[in-house]
Write a structure and sequence with these properties.
This protein is of the alpha+beta class. It has six helices and 18 strands. A nine-stranded mixed sheet has the order 3-1-2-4-9-8-7-6-5, covered by helices on one side. Strands 10, 11, 12, 13, 14, 15, 16, 17 and 18 form a nine-stranded mixed sheet that branches. β7 and β8 form a beta hairpin.
Length: 299
Amino acid sequence: MNKNNIAWYRVAGLTFGVYTPFPEQMNQILPSYVPFRIPAPMAPEKRLFTLCTVQPEVLETVEITQELAEDRNDLGRWKLSRATDGFCVDLQYIEGHPWHRLVADNHFSQLQAGIRWEDPCATEVVNSFTMMGFAQSAVAHQTTLIHASVTMKDGKGYAFLGTSGTGKSTHSRLWLQHIEGTELLNDDNPAVRILPDSSIKVFGTPWSGKTPCYKNLEATLGAFVLLKQAPHNAFSFLKGIQAYMVLLSSSSSLKWNTEYYNALGKTIEQLANQVPVGFLECLPDEEAARLCYNEIHSL
């Protein structure tokens, strides 16, 4: 691997690199990462991880010691396994397409990705593996990717949570339409980080689902709000274990990596104690947006 061919990025203040055989095409391979691209970092700067694409055959002999989980979601069909000294993820982006493999050490600081470039979805797989690397390795830095849609207003960010189909994107659009001065920060996977000075920020990322919103911006985190569809609009605040469980279920981390899962738990506990967590039963209408905004700002 030629270190001069690594493309470097910084998300939520954390730096990582991606190597492919096509360094001059990285902006086309990972277009949503362009706003986050940086020059090669100077040597004592800490790097979160490096993902290196390799010939798929290199990883075929990796010893699988335990099969952990298998599922199908927005990433495609995937299988998670324990490998010697780390983890292995096999991913098929679309049924009938080739399988790709990611092998990572226990801390997700060194990642190898066996990419079958003949697959028309190969670049999407590189993106998925990179997002996985960030989601896991960032936990050690009091940072978590959350499944949320985030709006910004007056320097503060508001993260709308809920299962897929709940209406997170719809509620963000209602804020954009009816709450003056609102801007969309990210529509699917923003990063939340507790900084060394204990301030809590929400950051744009290269991962925004179906909405092309890739902003290298940050805001002070003003509130989390869990959304639930209902035939009425009603707002309340969650405390204690309820708030904790809402945030934990919206965050990304492997429960099989005990060290990092415990670290995530401590981060979530601090977030739940310092950031308001609201619960909005709502219709997809202007009244819901204004109720949410007014309740958050009544604190």
